[in-house]
DNA sequence: CCTAATGATTGTCA
DNA sequence: TGACAATCATTAGG
């Protein structure tokens, strides 16, 4: 406490606690004749008061009692009252009510929003979810990070509440102690109930300052936790295998136009447990990387084409519709788009396609043949659809048109010959 | 430890 | 605003 709690005088003439007959004493003390003797007495009393702290507790109590019973005590009391009245003016100005603290309100709001000072647990998880949403994160270990965040937040919450309780308890104890002390002192010096009340206010203000520091530290802790959580989410995590497969499936089956609509993105996001923006990122990356080096992705493309063909065939053979098995739901549409609508995506490739590598083409063709063999053996022979699919069209191979055409024919013949055996 | 793969970010353009 | 291109930063495999 930097500013000593000074006793405040209430309005003039208010009775002092424990001293209803103060005026009487005052009049008694002013009319005396033996001034010298009284001065001596007062000097003694003051001396005793000054040395009271040097004495033991029992001694002090005894001395206090003796002072209370001293015949000059009322006179001393009056003097104290006079001094107090004189000092009141200089003190009064310092006792203004503080306006509601904006910073405290901010802290309170934040603690409430973060679920630290809220009514019940669960606010923490909401905040965690909000943080996750803000980070745009998803992913497989989503829940573990959430629980980690929740655990840390509830730890903070617990510490906060424990400390708060401690402070409140200490504040109450101290207030009671001071009030008792003042009541006790009011027997020897003039203290009004209002002054006691003011003293209590001062104590409460001091404790609320401490509370604010606690709130501030808690807020800081939450912010640090939150930023760490968000940073962790911002870290790159590879998508799980299944998610990548879903994305690749879509990409290669829509190779002619690998630009999923918003709805398609949402559906993919749902299937892959990632966000729509992550889907967009993935397609953005995929398109550009595919375009940059088609050869590298050829095998992957073949694999997914084969896979979709297989699944399409399975669907068509097991399903009730037996009309057109050559048009698998996604691959088929892409294929037909490719053939009819001039394949914008791939035509871009043809224009700036400078990645021709002879050996690579050989490998590509070989891998295509292998894939097709595999597909045929799986499907029990179904080649027309595959021959028409964009993967095996001349445009689908990143070579000069003539070479591509001949290779394409070669592959198709190979396939057809196998089929017709 | 090096390197390729890959998800995310940023700046630019139509 | 979405796509693209370049780049960053992290992960994973040898």
Please give a structural write-up.
One of its GO terms (cellular component) is nucleus. Residues 232-294 bind DNA. Residues 230-293 form the Homeobox domain. Residues 37-231 form the PBC domain. It is found in: Nucleus. By secondary structure, the chain is mainly α. Among the domains are: 73-90 and 101-116 and 145-235, no CATH class; 241-309, Orthogonal Bundle (Arc Repressor Mutant, subunit A), CATH 1.10.10. The chain is 72% helix and 0% strand. Helix 5 crosses helix 8 (193-234) and helix 12 packs parallel to helix 15 (358-379). The structure holds a DNA duplex (14 and 14 nucleotides).
Short description:
With 421 residues, the chain is mainly alpha-helical. It has helices spanning 22-30, 35-50, 57-69, 73-92, 102-113, 123-135, 142-185, 193-234, 241-253, 262-272, 276-292, 294-318, 331-341, 344-352, 358-379, 384-388, 401-420. The N and C termini lie far apart (101 Å).
Q: Outline, from the CA principal axes?
A: rod-shaped
Question: Taking all residues together, what is the mean pLDDT?
Answer: 65
Name the structural class: mainly alpha
SSE string, helices as H and strands as E: HHHHHHHHHHHHHHHHH
Cα-based radius of gyration, to the nearest Å: 44 Å
Total number of helical segments?
17
Gap between N and C termini: 101 Å
Main sheet specs: none
Percent strand equals under 5%
State the low-pLDDT regions, or none. 1-32, 132-141, 319-344, 346-421
Number of strands: 0
Helicity, as a percent range: over 70%
GO molecular function, one term: DNA-binding transcription factor activity, RNA polymerase II-specific
Pfam families: Homeobox_KN (PF05920), PBC (PF03792)
InterPro entries: HD, Homeobox_CS, Homeodomain-like_sf, KN_HD, PBX_PBC_dom, TALE_homeobox
Region (Disordered): 1-39
